[in-house]
Fold this sequence. Notes:
Layout: H1 9-20, E1 25-27, E2 34-38, E3 43-48, H2 58-70, E4 74-79, H3 80-97, E5 102-105, E6 110-113, H4 116-126, E7 136-142, E8 145-152, E9 156-157, E10 166-175, E11 179-182, H5 184-196, E12 200-206, H6 213-217, E13 221-225, E14 230-233, E15 240-242, E16 255-258, E17 262-268
Parallel strand pairs: 3-4, 5-11, 10-12
Antiparallel strand pairs: 1-2, 2-3, 6-7, 7-8, 8-10, 9-10, 12-17, 13-17, 14-15, 14-16
Helix pairs in contact: 1-3
Amino acid sequence: MKINSVPVLWHENFFDELEKRSIPFKKIGSRGFDLIQLDTYPLVVHLVDLKSSLFYVAEDFIRLQEAHQEEGIYLVHLWEDVWYTRAAQVMARISSILGLNKKIHGRQCTIVTISQQEANVFLDQHHLQFSVKAKYRFGLMKSGQLVAVALFSGGRPMPRISASYLSYELVRFASISGYTVSGGFTKLLRHFSLSYHPDDIMSYADRDWSLGNAYARSGFNLVEATAAIPMWVDPVSFTRYFVHRLPNTDASEFKPVFNTGNLKYKLYLNGC
Length: 272
């Protein structure tokens, strides 16, 4: 299904990938936004060119997302640089949202401890945001294959609550592309909780791509919507940098971008 508009290369690449997967789509752009309705599922992808930051601010995107959410529509923001650097992961995420994944039952999987290197390889292949360093790393294995991973931080003391209170962070969770590990998320959470006895586990849902539904289903409470974060993108490599981490080079050609912040969730485990 070709969209009748002025061709934009990365838009056309995205449409080609949808067609390869036989995912119907149509343009429903409004108020200057490039909005693409996918399938019959209430999912809309907002295509965001790098130049968009010259005309919009994060609050515009948040209002757009909230307006669709009020109508029962799941809207995600797909930035141009994210498409160029993570196209395979974007398509895997969309397929998951549309319910096109095959299913693996978590009860058929074995919990294993994995190395940082193993986590890096898996997350760089299957997570939209790449890997991060973490103190605790676990995976689910099925028939000798790693099918899901969860990474956790060390415990952070919270003396304002009590002298012994420790809060941990779930910093990454991902399953293998094309598959949903049914019960895998809660299985890994339960294993970590029984092993390290956290008072709470907190985590962030990327607001560009998530409504936090998986957290809510697993008993997490939404405690905060964090502020949007401004960043800069190298228009050649499409690498994103936080303002305080710009390389020591001429950054005059870098393009400003932003996200829509995060949804902060907490799972309280000791009655707090």
